[in-house]
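Sanity check

After download, print the first record. It should look like this:
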Amino acid sequence: MSHVKAGGSSKNIHNNAGARLGVKRFGGQKVNVGEVLVRQTGSTKVAGPGTFMSRNFTIHAAVEGVVSFNKVKTRRFTGKTAPRTQVSVQ
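Expected structure tokens:
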């Protein structure tokens, strides 16, 4: 016979807040220096001219201007190209 009662499973215990990821400033919007343009997990969008990427892959504006999004192909380590969206500020 068992000496320990059966432990039930708890399914609804993970109650974390959302990470609030996504595009914060859209194409055509005016931005100031340092504003957050995109919050993302991994480099799904890449930083173009007038922008920079921080350690957690957040893209910020490096200059004042207007935001634009362009489709580009980035080369991976293996030589394969992958489509990405490039965020830039002019």
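If your output differs, re-run the checksum step. Summary of this record's structure: The chain has one domain: 22-89.
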